[in-house]
Amino acid sequence: MPLPGVYYAVKKNGSIYYRSSVTYRSRHISLGSFETEHEAHLVYERAKDLLSSGRGINDHEGSDPLPFDKAVILVNFRDNNVYIKNPIYLQNTYIEYYLDPDTVFKFDIEDLFFYSVHRIQRRGGHFFVADYGMQVNLNTRYGIKRHAVYGRDYRFINGDRYDYRYENIEVINSHNGVMRIKKDGKILFKTSILINGTVTVGIYDTLTEAAIAYNKAADILTGSKGSRKYELNYIDELSPSEYADKYTEIKISPGIYERAGRA
């Protein structure tokens, strides 16, 4: 007979492994799969202890046999009476998503449904979720462009790079290839584009002009030898005819035409 909280299971090759689970408030909660019965039972005992104690998430130690994400899920269920399958803890006005003990994201409560069914993953220094078979960068969900540079194109107002609450995100440069600069005491907008390195398209008086200049450069380069795909800027403050007039009027660096072989 297996130890409390442990169930035998059989792999396709016929070998036995052990599953652990706990029941709390009439809910059956899986704690994971383990190689030995003793390990599975130990995790069950730690889960029971956590659910019956006042221990918090920060009390979890690296040597604890209970996986950290399971500890977060159980503490949240115990404290807030809401079971969420991802490692989320509900605060009064926001949620905390624990990727690991040292990486804690904050999101507005409105984002709870999304993150309760989408698990955050990390590759290198980038964070993303899988959504409809695609990898969606966390930044792009909040209006931050894919190639944006922290401190130049966007910033987190309180300095916490894991705090994605909307009021904490400031997008400084909201368009592809556009950077706000200061020259002779005046705020201007510099447009650049990638062509085997960064090439300056021009410097413009307004953000809209700079964004259109990027689109014009991208259009010129598209189809040229060795060209890449460019994500164009969406200009919603102009009508189609106004956009067309601006597009025609805006001057861009002759080097863009040269690079495209259209000088």
Walk me through what this model shows:
The termini are far apart. The chain has helices spanning 37-52, 68-80, 112-117, 207-221, 240-249, 254-260, and strands spanning 6-10, 16-24, 27-34, 88-90, 94-100, 103-108, 120-123, 126-131, 134-137, 154-156, 169-171, 178-183, 186-194, 198-204. Strand 1 and strand 2 form a beta hairpin. By secondary structure, it is of the alpha+beta class. It contains six helices and 14 strands. Helix 1 packs parallel to helix 2 (68-80). It has three domains: 1-67; 84-172, no CATH class; 178-260, no CATH class. The strands form five sheets. The chain has a three-stranded antiparallel sheet with strand order 1-2-3, covered by helices on one side. A three-stranded antiparallel sheet has the order 4-5-6. A three-stranded antiparallel sheet has the order 7-8-9, with no helix packed on it.
